[in-house]
Design goal:
291 residues; 38% strand; 19% helix; alpha+beta
């Protein structure tokens, strides 16, 4: 990629966001003037066939973490790196601010921006012995109750060994990248994004039957919906969902080095500080004063 004179680039902008759409058009014009090919400019959430087209050297996403997740999920296993320009609130997955876009694109075009590889998840849903759905996740796969505040009951198997039943609001299987989201909010461990590991986090387990755990990234986890459960849903990255039925079996496993992000950006610990995961300075003093 570094020695090529022309790049094939896909631009994806945050849906219904005028500033992101306008910057995507400006960046496309700038790239074409430099002799590069812009494969497409599409709105996030559009299942364009360009995602499956070859070749794409890298993708530029103008949006927040949700937009990044939607794009990265479509590129799992493609070895196509993604550069995020933040138009969201938190921007944990993005590496550039809008005012930096020319500088960041120059670095990507010359190959000076590093590529970080991270885990993803594969999932499948079987009903009455037949697989009816499958896919990938970048952040997490969540099994959770429906709209009523009633518990669901799963049978949990880890690496082929029965762990036991779990009764609660649900369970989360998260990648290291996704561990900073729903999983950590539910009391799970915060994992460094370079790790090859899975975080398993029960959601409000009844009588604390199963604690949050971390397993090697190649561990296969299986969950079966047991008698006594109410409405239950499978949700992927908080963006795609399936309604589950009694007896359904959901299998989740790690995919090593399946997604690729462009740019070194800030360090993991600086991201934690800047995104509010760690109190610092005056905030720590105030917290201590109020204790």
């Amino acid at each position: 990629m570094q020695n090529a004179t022309s790049r094939h680039i896909l631009l994806v902008y945050k849906a219904r966001h005028d500033r992101a759409a306008a910057l995507a058009q400006e960046a496309a014009l700038w790239l074409r003037q430099k002799g590069h090919e812009v494969t497409a400019i599409i709105s996030a959430g559009v299942d364009s066939p360009v995602y499956a087209a070859e070749p794409i050297d890298f993708v530029v996403v103008l949006g927040g973490d949700g937009t990044m997740l939607g794009v990265a999920r479509r590129l799992v296993g493609r070895k196509v790196p993604v550069l995020g320009i933040n138009f969201g609130r938190i921007g944990f997955l993005t590496d550039a601010q809008p005012e930096q876009w020319r500088e960041k694109l120059e670095e990507c075009l010359t190959g000076s921006e590093p590529v970080r590889s991270c885990m993803a998840l594969s999932w499948s849903l079987a009903r009455k012995g037949q697989q009816i759905a499958q896919g990938c996740a970048v952040n997490d796969v969540v099994l959770s109750r429906g709209s009523l505040s009633r518990l669901v009951l799963f049978d949990v198997f880890i690496a082929g060994e029965r762990l036991g039943p779990l009764r609660g609001d649900g369970i989360i299987v998260a990648t290291p990248v996704g561990s900073s989201g729903y999983s950590v909010s539910a009391g799970g461990s915060l994992l460094h994004p370079s790790m090859n590991a899975l975080a398993i986090t029960p959601i409000c387990p009844f009588l604390n039957s199963i604690s949050p755990m971390v397993f090697p990234g190649d561990t296969e986890c299986t969950f079966q919906i047991l008698q006594g459960s109410t409405d239950c849903f499978l949700t992927v990255d908080g963006q795609e969902g399936q309604q589950l039925e009694l007896g359904d079996t959901i299998t989740v496993a790690g995919l090593p080095e399946a997604v690729h992000f462009l740019g070194k950006g800030t360090t993991f610990f600086e991201r934690l500080r800047s995104r509010g995961f760690v109190l610092q300075g005056a905030e720590c003093s105030r917290s201590g004063d109020n204790a």
